[in-house]
Amino acid sequence: MRAIKAASTLLLACLIAGCNSDVTIKKVGASGRRYYEDTFVFSGGLSAETVNLLGNHLLLTKMKIAPEQFIRELELLCRQEPSSRAFIAMAETSQFLAAKLRSTPDIAVRYDLTSLLYAQKYFRNAIDKKTTVLFDPEAIIAVKCYNLALTELFSYLKERNLHTAGAFELTAAGGQIIQFTLPDFFLPVTADKILSFELCSDYRPVNLTHNSRNFGIGVPLICCLKEDSVPETTFADDQVIPATLAIQLQVSADDTSGSRRKAKLFFLDSRSTDEVTIDGTQVPLAQDFSTPLAYMVQKPQVFNFLQRTFKIDMTKSATGLYHLEPHHDDRIPIVLVHGLMSDIRTWLQLINTLQSDPVLRQNYRFMGFSYSSGNPIFISAMHLREALAAEREKLQKDGRNLEKFDRMILIGHSMGGLISRMMISTSNDDILSRFIGKKEYSTINHQDRFFRKILIFEPVPYVKRVIFIAVPHRGSDLAQSMIGQVASSMIEIPQSLLDLNTAIIRQLVNLPKEKSIDVNRFNGIDNLSPDGTALKLLNTLPISEKIPYHSVIGNEKQRGVPGGSDGVVSYSSSHLDGAKSEIVVKSGHSVQQNPLAIQEIKRILKRHLIESGN
Q1: Residue 136 DSSP SS3
Q2: Is the model more confident about 108 or about 495?
Q3: In this predicted model, which residue has the larger pLDDT, 490 or 382?
Q4: Strand pairing partners for 282?
Q5: Terminal C-alpha separation, the chain
Q6: What is the predicted pLDDT for the residue at 253?
Q7: Mind listing the pLDDT tens digit for each residue in 292-312?
Q8: Distance (Å, rounded) from C-alpha 327 to C-alpha 434?
């Protein structure tokens, strides 16, 4: 029986989570630093940004198997989103395809012409925007020399504990004396909160589908924080933030041996800084967001997703909001609410892709809400309301500007979407009495504090938009299946919650005292049953007309077609009348990791900026 339960649980987890590969990191060390810049070029001959763009629109495979259709779709994208990045992608891929077709010159030349057309579009776009150093290959050589030399200098200084020190001298090969002064820190935490720095070039992310890096001046760093660096609950046990190192080095025509030059290191917040000034000219800053993200989650969590689901009492300390970065007044919080048998790490692909966009990076910050998905959904929703209220109250006491906080967006996947839905819904005595029956409702203790805390609520006033991803608004048949029922029976509900469940369940379904109920069965998995009391009640609760919401739905067989299922949740269950927008992508249940779904979320987030007055 134990083996059957274990197998059923693993199968359920695979169905729900999609058996996605974990994001990890590989250390390459000093020997790999020289090739760090080269990772901007894909092994197949395409630049990393082109690979990103094609991957984000699911065009990589099509380029190889159906090139003519691929060109048509990419040209459509260039018309819809005319940008330098899109033009370069078209020029690169056309040249790539032409090279493959040299044995048939009449066909290859067609792709050469397309490459020329879009290269010309890129030049015209660059000239219109007055881009500098348009045709100077020496500029790229200079940047690579600068970055690699600064990388090795930093490594040298770090080994001698000089990278954060001042008032020391080094001598250049030509005899010039370089006098280093104390470095400047422009980071979201003070210098005393920093545990250490690691070079991004010493590591390579594994299993991240998007390369969130930008080419420019500087050395990307992983800034490791001390445990007490961020007063909020951090995203991972070993919290890090991305940073970039730059140097200000005095130069002069007098570079004779013995001449003195001053130098200063700068540690910059790469989430907030896209450019640096060199001799009065703004140049792009090198940025790497993927490597710090992968580095931060390289260790397993204290509680795995099975413990979080089945051991509610043991893992209750893990419930709450988790911050990817320190609070920033000028950024709108996006709160990510995971689904059944999952945790906040399920959002890594989405976070990694979205934070590569400079507009989103400057205007949003990511937070995750973690909870035990074994809990009844109304209990988890109460925990989310309390966590959000506590966060706002703390910020208010600290005198922070709450304007952007009060434009919050929730993104909920699967069960997390049901919990998010309750943040924009209304439940009051009148609604509950109609659901239970006015006569029966008058006889129960509906003034009980716990009853009201869990079942009486209004829309959270500072939640201004919700994105639902693969949400079973009308339930999932999987919850009623043998696999679902076996998994449900394994959930260990705390005694305090059992006692509370008994009272609430009896009141909701109006069971007489003499009739016994199995409160163990009223948990997170059972709440997903289409015939369950929880969903029936939830679907009677009105959603605020003032708050826009969107649906992103999976269909295992085809995209763009309403219907079908993602393997766990059917379209008919995920669809919501009144949604501001709805998109169906070809995907299993892990829709939040689908590139086209992420592109739709990116569109919604940019729309939110416009509609909220940013």
Answers
A1: coil
A2: 108
A3: 382
A4: 277
A5: 57
A6: 55
A7: 999 998 877 655 555 555 455
A8: 42
Please give the structure tokens belonging to residue 523.
């948990």
* Residue 552 backbone zone (phi > 0: left; psi -120 to 50: alpha; other: beta): beta
Rounded Cα–Cα distance for residues 209 and 563 (Å): 28
**Any idea which residue has 């209004």 for tokens?**
458
CB distance 589 to 470 below 8 Å: yes
Cα–Cα dist 235/347, whole Å: 11
Spatial separation of the C-alpha atoms in residues 439 and 611, rounded to whole Å: 45
Query: Which structure tokens are listed for 376?
Result: 């009844």
Residues near 271 by Cβ (< 8 Å), separated by ≥ 6? Answer: 188, 241, 242, 289, 325, 355, 361
Which three-class secondary structure state does DSSP give residue 307?
Answer: helix
Closest by CA to 217, choosing from 277, 293, 163, is: 277
Q: Are 542 and 530 in contact (CB under 8 A)?
A: no
Q: What one-letter code names the amino acid at 603?
A: R
d(CA 134, CA 125): 11
Amino acid in position 329: D
pLDDT score of 503 more than 80 = no
Q: Which residues pair with 412 in a beta bridge?
A: 337, 468
Mean of all residue pLDDT scores within the chain? 82
519 pLDDT higher than 50: no
With a cut of 60, say whether residue 588 has pLDDT above it.
yes
